[in-house]
Amino acid sequence: MLKLKLFHNDMSVCAQKVRMVLAYKNLEWESVHLNLRAGDQFKPEFKQVNPKGMVPVLQHNGATITESTAIIEYLDEVFPDPALMPANPLERAIVRNWMIRLDASLHENIAVISFCVAFRHQMLERYADQDALEGFLNNIPDPARASNMREFLLNGLDSPRLRQSLYVYNKLLQDMDHALSHGGWLAGAHLSLADFSLLPYLERLQQLQMAEWWHEYPGIDAWLLRMTETAGYRQGMLDWHNHSYIQLMGQKGQEAWPTVKALIDDL
Asked: Which residues form the GST N-terminal domain (predicted)?
């Protein structure tokens, strides 16, 4: 068996869920870490790996697999022990529903929240020169992503997209609480890909000082505690925590919370 190679970033939510699955399954892998703020994903050598300029990317047995949901399903099929997909077909469908929801909406909206609240400050400091900022934006292959990034950077908490993203996550928290009240895990009685997929997004909200958001849903805090006790979390997320990013998110999140809470209360 050829070694697994993962192109990833320490604080990328998509990379985090892949690393957790790798850790949970006790798989050895070669790390190729990219600094996304410095634009490593746009360098020619990585664009040959993934023309979209996005992480994570998994290489295994001569194949290159992109998109984090496809990667973790591949890992669970190729390395089935311990299994992270239920045997029951209905529960498998529930797992896939959570992951489809992530790909269709939740991932995009956590980016909106993260950039509007915190990351824009880091980006604007790094690219203080207008030409440098335009150069970074022009390197983004997808014009829609580039346009969205420009809007988040310029408008921050005043971005019209922020309210929409908060609505999406408000509904998620309600649905997670309902699901967890019926089994302890998102897809029933056992830990699954759904749990590892959602965890990075909830931890991101914690890091942005938004945990008060779900104070009426104690099942979510209980689930978070169980997740952080897994080897998958410790090796796939905790060991890769970038404390300068976490400090930035904590500081800017605390400053932004009164404005964000007012937007949530008005939903």
From this structure: 2-83
